[in-house]
Amino acid sequence: MTAAEAEAPGGDSQPAGERTYFIDAEEAAELARLMQQDRLVTEAMGGLLPELEALPSAAQVLDLACGPGGWALEMAFRYPKAEVIGVDLSPSIVDYANAQARSRGLSNVQFAAMNITQPLAFADASFDLINARFLAGFMRPQDWPRLLTECRRLLKPGGVIRLTESEWGLTTSPATQRYYALCSEALKRAGQSFSPDGHHLGITPMLAPLLRQAGFEDVRLRGGALEWSSGTPQHYSTFKNIFVMFDLLKPFLVRTGVVSPEEVEPLYQQAVAEMQADDFCAVWTWLTVWGQKPTTT
User: Fold this and answer.
1) Which among 226, 225, 206, 217 is positioned nearest to 290, based on CA atoms?
2) Which residues of the chain carry a pLDDT beneath 70?
3) Cβ(12)–Cβ(128) below 8 Å
4) Is the Cα torsion angle 257, 24, 162, 291 positive or negative in sign?
5) Orientation angle between helical segments 91-103 and 70-78, nearest 10 degrees
């Protein structure tokens, strides 16, 4: 059975799952932010798959926690012989992504509502490539080994898993750095961080070891960076991404008790002001790690 023939879960067959994403995914502002962030990161990375030389002809591709589907839609457009499937926990976001595919006339991509912290409704050895970006916003440490074991089951022998994660960026804005620190501490309190002290996300140093522990071979790393200092071409688009994210993160910060409602708003306003200053300097970095399923067991 091919990936396309797999039965997508619906109704009671979809595990309810715990909605641990640190932003309300149903917010229209978050939908728009994710689409814009996806384009921004793909461009800064140098393309959809800058680390991989080529995909097999008629490749089967799975995008995990695909959100509104930006990466999967672009993959389907760039590789018309490939079959691309995106899965996400939110049925409404999946509906949006499927509507985008129809509006663009892309018949080789589809989206389904699935919880990636649970077993996925695909047959063994269905995919040549599994991709995921920025899962740290909802994944708990104990979820990662289970997910990677499931990915190994879903990949064909020799298939590739590709993960991209980031820590918070570095800037010259005191308020922005304080906001980043609060986000890290909130994720630590929520049990969604590998950091030993809550000072960072802690996911990037874990990616390669997690892949090796799950049995993947030839694990490799590639770093990326985007400068968004004032006056640079990427300043406004990255600034917009950050200030929208900061705004949407306020309920999570307050709920986890790292800051009060009275404290968070002036800090947010100060960060927005400092990010627009003429002397503002900033860089955002990420790490892509990929590995292969062994060709023999």
Assistant:
1) 217
2) 1-18, 297
3) no
4) positive
5) 30
Identify the three-state secondary structure at position 83: strand
Q: Please provide the distance, in angstroms rounded to a whole number, between the alpha carbons at the two ends of the chain.
A: 21
- Residue-level pLDDT at 258: 97
Q: Is the model's pTM score more than 0.85?
A: yes
- Strand runs (DSSP E) across 167-281, as ranges? 170-171, 217-227
Q: What confidence score (pLDDT) does residue 24 get? A: 84
CA distance to 64, 153, 201, per residue, from 45 (Å)? 19, 28, 21
- DSSP annotation string for 198-211: SSS---GGGHHHHH
Length of the chain (residues)? 297
Q: From residue 8, how far is each of 16, 158, 211, 243 by CA, in Å? A: 15, 25, 26, 35
The span from the CA of 180 to the CA of 196, in Å, is: 16
Task: At 204, list the tokens.
Answer: 């990037």
